[in-house]
Amino acid sequence: MGGGPIEDHLLCVLPFAIPEDIQEKLRKKFPKIEFSFRETSYPKNHEDLLKQVPNELFNDKTILVTLSTLPPALSDAPHLELVQLFSAGSNHISTHPIYTDSDITITTSSGIHGPQIAEWVVMCALVQSHKYNKLYELQKESRWGKTGASDDYHNVRDMVGQRLGVLGYGSIGRQVARVGKAMGMDVIAFTATPKNTSEERKDAGFVIPGTGDPDGSIPSAWYSGLDKPSLHKFLAQDIDHLLISVPLTAETKHMLSTAEFDILAKSKAHISNIARGQIIDQDAMIAALKDGRLRSAALDVTDPEPLPKESELWTLDNVVVTPHISGVGQAYTDRAFQVLEANLERRERGEKLINVVQRKRGY
After folding, report:
1. Model pTM?
2. Which of 199, 203, 127 is nearest to 166 (CA)?
3. Strands, E assignment, the chain
4. Taking a C-beta distance cutoff of 8 angstroms, is the pair 76, 59 a contact?
5. Of 271, 292, 310, 350, whose CB neighbour count within 10 A is largest?
6. Residue 164 and residue 241 in contact, taking contact as beta carbons nearer than 8 Å
7. How far apart are CA 287 and CA 261, in angstroms?
8. Count of beta carbons in the 10 Å neighbourhood of residue 2
């Protein structure tokens, strides 16, 4: 690609240092784009944000790359055509005028979180099934702890033959499915809309090579729907491990409550929530964890966040709580910029972008 007149003005505003080698690579690969990079701290309030990112910075920009920093008003960015989010979801900007009152294209970094989140899901499940917390306490006390075939450490069931239900078969769900399948699990999938053909089951978003389920061949069965009967049919399939990986929308808020936990009680499922805390009716989940309808839970998200100190979830032996960190890791920044690079290439060629947010759908 040669030079020529500038066709796009891109502003990248992120709350962390943007590696110099990535900046240089983008400038060399896209000479017709004028790049501006700005590192910010997490703003304390709107006034703090304006000090770090003045409104005039947005004035001539056609592309904005950001985690959550947006122009206060549409009039502050009259030329904006594309917002590339560094997050997998878009619900955190869903009340902003860019989302509600414009047709500016919004794309996400969906597809980059699968490997690290899948490892978190497996790690937390094994912590529960292999009694790791008890073993760790023994280690701290310098105690061997093994007493014989009747002790709790012999009561371990491996993953082979267990059923993994993936509630939301997106990029994260596909990678968890891939790992679960490799561990000998049967995988079933639930999606909002039917996936009846091989073409519909393909992953149309960003896929890290060697990960996920690009062609949708892993699940032994597919279920779909936005209504309760469809959801209940899926949950009634003797699920041992339920992964919650749906986006937070009006339809998915409190998607799982008492009725759903009553269904899962048949198999005493372990649940993993890496989506959003509000998808679960938290009080109903706590009750199900305490009375045994749910075997255990791994929660990287809660309602609210941070989880209050007085919450019972902190003290339940069958719960793992982590502070919304399952999706972060050393590769996050590089992979997010790979998504941006892919979309800039497509934009240059006039092709359809990947990971485009469908506002009516909510994600």
Report:
1. 0.91
2. 203
3. 8-14, 33-39, 63-66, 82-85, 105-107, 163-167, 186-191, 221-224, 241-244, 270-273, 296-299, 319-321
4. yes
5. 271
6. yes
7. 10
8. 5
